[in-house]
Amino acid sequence: MSDLIHFEDLAPGQEYDLGALTVTKDDIIEFAEEFDPQPFHLDEAAGKASILGGLAASGWHTASLVMRLLATGFLNKTAGRGSPGINELQWKRPVFPGDTLTAKAEVLETKAMRSKPDLGIASVRVTATNQHGVEVLKWENPILFARREAAP
Fold first, then answer.
1. 15-22 and 88-91 as β-strands: parallel, antiparallel, unpaired?
2. Could you read off the pLDDT of 59-100 as tens digits, one per residue?
3. Position 24 pLDDT exceeds 70
4. CB–CB of 66/101 below 8 Å?
């Protein structure tokens, strides 16, 4: 467990590249059918007629894809212990079939926890851009991390 990133390894300003993935039309429709069955997520004509301008991924789908990148690109390499919630989530631009999302995480703040000396909490900003460098998603949330040794 010592090779994992622990609370003590985190500092404001650190950035982690989370990797990239490409979204397909089938992915968008499959997610929408199960979790967000609005016409502009299910049908190209309805998407084109909407404010989105085309078949677009659900914001929840986009967030789920970026969560996957966060997990595989960062969290699974840490002594992370979960999160008490999310402070802010913004869907900045639609995500369309063929878009490649690239994500990064930035540590904004770290704080030792007095109530739980074996944990620290880091405020993290996660952003995702499409292949054109346009930001499509941003969120900020606190994440709990184990400490190597409990604070006195």
1. unpaired
2. 999 999 999 999 999 999 999 999 999 999 999 999 999 999
3. yes
4. yes
Token pair in block for residue 127: 């952003």
Copy the structure tokens of residue 62: 């986009």
**103: β partners:** 19, 128
Q: Note the pLDDT tens digit of each residue in 106-120.
A: 999 999 999 999 999
Mean of the pLDDT values across residues 32-50? 98
Judged against a pLDDT cut of 50, whether residue 1 lies above it is answered with no
CA 130 to chain centre: 14
Euclidean distance between CA atoms 44 and 80, whole angstroms: 40
Domains of the chain (ranges; CATH) run 7-146 (3.10.129.10)
Angle at the Cα of 63 from the Cα atoms of 74 and 127, rounded to 5 degrees: 60
* 115 CB-near residues (< 8 Å, 6+ apart): none
Q: Are 138 and 127 in contact (CB under 8 A)?
A: yes
Q: Is the sign of the CA dihedral 72, 74, 79, 82 positive or negative?
A: negative
- Longest pairwise C-alpha distance within the chain: 62
Look up the pTM and report it.
0.94
Within 10 Å of residue 25's Cβ, how many Cβ atoms? 13
